[in-house]
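Q: Sequence in, structure out?
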Amino acid sequence: MKNLRKLLGLTAVTLLLMLLISAWAWGQIPADAQLPVHWNAAGEVDRYGGKVEGLLLSPIITAGLMVLVAFITRLEPRRGNFLQSEKAFTMFWYVLLLFFLMLHVTTTGIALGYNIPLPLVIGVGIGLMFIVLGNFMGKIRSTYTFGIRTPWTLDSDLSWNKTHRLGGKLFMATGVLVLLTAVLGSSILMFWVLMGGILITVGVSMVYSYIVWKNDPDAQARRA
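A: Exactly. Output:
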């Protein structure tokens, strides 16, 4: 992948920035302070932790996730198709990094005592992420590690392409609804809109991928 080194470099810079933010906040917070580390669907803090968990867990999770994503893509058997999807994968990486950075800045600010509406930040972040990713889903080629992978999309390019175009629209619709409910300030409604949107997208995509596969002459000819 041409952009992998650039993406890893950007990831390193993002992680360094997150650690610098944590280091700065570390000196502002008492050693025995209990920081909010988890929020429920209503946006209320339901668990506290020490400084290590509150300030370092987010960079550690981000680093682990990005390493895992990079490792999994190296195992992709349909390497040619993955390389054709490089633009979409790069955008996915950018959006994920930006989301984790935004989340870290927000939670660190809350730990420092700033009155930041976390549900609004998360809702706007997730909404925009779904809109951007949905816009790029139609550009993803058939792979085992990236995209909507059902037995039928993996067996039929026609099913893959049509399912991803539909899935992209559903992703974008979910993103818009999550964004609107976040701005309206209803964190519970936002949570259920997000969960409902994901379930509908998954369910509709699975059924649609089968229907297209069943009517794909090339896929059916291979079964004969």
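The chain has one domain: 4-223.
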